[in-house]
Amino acid sequence: MGRHRMKNLFENNRYWANQIKSEDPLFFEKLARQQQPEYLWIGCADSRVPANEIVGLLPGELFVHRNVANLVIHTDLNCLSVIQYAVDVLKVKHVIVCGHYGCGGVATAISERPSGLIDNWLLHVKDLYHRNHAMFVDCVDDEHRVNRLCEMNVTEQVNNVCHTSIVQAAWQRGQELNVHGWIYSITDGLLKDLGITFDAPGQVPAVYRP
Ligand code: CO
């Protein structure tokens, strides 16, 4: 059974590659030479939030980093390396932090059930909830609370991207770079712009500027 399913993935892959080549015979040859994505996507690892598909972009058009709850942690060398390469080398023009409603990571962060190692990663979300506890007092239920925290988490991670030495340096040298906060709804497949775009160091508190 498991073996059969794995085989399906390779069949799917050949079908997919042929589909693309039927529309553009040189597609993969051209891509093999270079990538020039305009966008960096920082999203949740959730299987229901497939970055390229949601925004209808082909291979080569979206540089992607995903982790549980779309976190940008100040000292996470994995995420920082992705941001640095995207900004300094690929020169992407847009960084998109995209959260999603009903995020299991966010829900786990405020639940009382232990989930193992992941609880430590999600402490960043728990901290955010704890620091802003007053903003959740009118939430009618857990779903409401989780979804509000999902939005707040996107805002927090957008700020974290802007505070990195990488983004600060890019803005200092006059490089065009926009950092956006979006949220995706797994119930209808639609994206929402949270309206928190940053494109200049002046929008960031002075203490974070070089
Ligand atoms: Co999630």
Structure summarized in a few sentences:
This protein has 210 residues and is of the alpha/beta class. The chain is built from 9 helices and 5 strands, in the order H-H-E-H-E-H-E-H-H-H-H-H-E-E. Helices cover 45% and strands 14% of the residues.
How would you describe this protein?
- Helices cover 45% and strands 14% of the residues.
- The mean pLDDT is 96.
- It has 210 residues and is of the alpha/beta class.
- The chain has a five-stranded mixed β-sheet.
- The protein contains nine helices and five strands, in the order H-H-E-H-E-H-E-H-H-H-H-H-E-E.
- It has helices at 2-23, 27-33, 51-54, 77-89, 104-109, 118-121, 123-131, 142-163, 165-172; strands spanning 39-44, 62-67, 94-100, 178-184, 191-193.
- The structure holds cobalt (II) ion.
Quote the distance from N terminus to C terminus: 57 Å
Bound molecules: cobalt (II) ion
The rough form would be described as globular
- Average of pLDDT: 96
* Structural class by secondary-structure content: alpha/beta
Percentage of residues in strands? 5-15%
Major sheet = 5 strands, mixed
| Number of continuous helical runs | 9
Radius of gyration equals 19 Å
| H and E string | HHEHEHEHHHHHEE
Strand order across the largest sheet: 2-1-3-4-5
Helix content: 40-55%
Show unreliable segments.
none
Number of strands: 5
